[in-house]
Structures are given as structure tokens and as C-alpha cells.
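Sanity check record (used in CI):
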Amino acid sequence: TSFSTPKKKKRDDGMREHVTGCARSEGYYKIDKKDKLKYLNNSRAFAEEPPADTQVRTCPLLIAGRRSEQRRLLSSFTGSCDSDLLKFNQLKFRKKKLKFCKSHIHDWGLFAMEPIAADEMVIEYVGQNIRQVIADMREKRYEDEGIGSSYMFRVDHDTIIDATKCGNFARFINHSCNPNCYAKVITVESQKKIVIYSKQHINVNEEITYDYKFPIEDVKIPCLCGSENCRGTLN
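Expected output for SET1B methyltransferase:
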């Protein structure tokens, strides 16, 4: 009852000879290791071999020279007038790791999750660009709604950024009379933006603060920064 299955022969060109005459009716059959290695070696060599006209050996000294050239260009850009634009593009490409949590100064605060060197862009103050008239109307409406904190940042005489309901983590930065950051207005593609810069080295889990520079008013807002040279009020 047991019949020995005839061995499947191979043709002269290396292809397997199909007994039934059709490869699909043969089903699955194993490939010899020799044939498999021969096929893999041929395909690997074909894949790794570059075209004849592009076979150029890369010299390590050439790579090092290119890297030094890139560093030189970067340093020259940084020292030019376009340094803010370059830093802003870097900030967009790789944002700083920040988090907001409860602050000992006031309510919520923004903290660094990575070391930040001095004179670096920390975060952009994002919000809606509105005019002074709209800002006055919104300020009254926010008071009626019970929103005590103000998240409006003046860019110039006509433009104010409102981050109360459309903003990012920058609105959680608290005021300090001895801050580790400062705010600066830069122009990117003919549009003014507010960016928070670091004044000094900022350690991990250190709270990010800057001076609000509120105008002097009769009704004083108490300052709770707790620094040695605290002025006592925000305005």
C-alpha cells in the first residue's frame, strides 16, 4: 500500500521538473540549502552593488570636513541678524520638554523637564492676535465669567495676543522679580511673535518665570514670587 514518491528531477537550467506538468498542482516543496544559499548570495550581491557610475569611496576626512563646515556656517548664522529666525526654526523643529503643574508662586506654573542653556528659545507665547478694542471687551467678559487670571500679552501698540482660551503652555508661566527668562518680540515672515528666552542656565524641574512688566497703576496686584529683591507688587 505504500508507494515511494518519485524524486522530482531538475532541469539543466536549474529549475525543478514538475511531474504533473503544472507548478500550482505540485503544492509546497522544500528548496535545497545549496540552491537557497546560491540564490541569496546572488540577490545580496546584486542589491549591495551600486551602479558603476556612482561607485565613489567616501573618505572619513571628507565627512569630517563637511561636518566642520556645517558647524562653521551655523555659528556664522547665529552671530548674524537672522539668529532669531534660525533659533525659531530650531524651536519649531525640536520643542523643549516642558510640563505644567502646581506652583508655589501662584496656581499653575511651567517647569523644565530638561536642562536649558542660557540665551535659548524656551517656548513661543501662542494665542489669538486681537486689537485693543477687542481686548477691552474680552477683559470685561472674562471678569463676568469668573476668569480671574489674565492671559493677554501686548505685542505692540495695536496688537495683543490673547491666550485665555486659545493658547499653549506658555500662558502658565508665572511672574518673578528675579526671573530666569525674558520675553522678546521677533518678526517671522512679516509677523510679530512673542518668544520666551532663557536668561541663565535652567535645571530640570526648575520653574520658568519672567517679568510681566505691568504698567504702574493705583490698584496694586500683590506679587508672590518670594525672591530676595521682590518688589511686592506686579504693577
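The mean pLDDT is 77. If this sentence no longer matches the regenerated C-alpha cells, the check is flagged for review.
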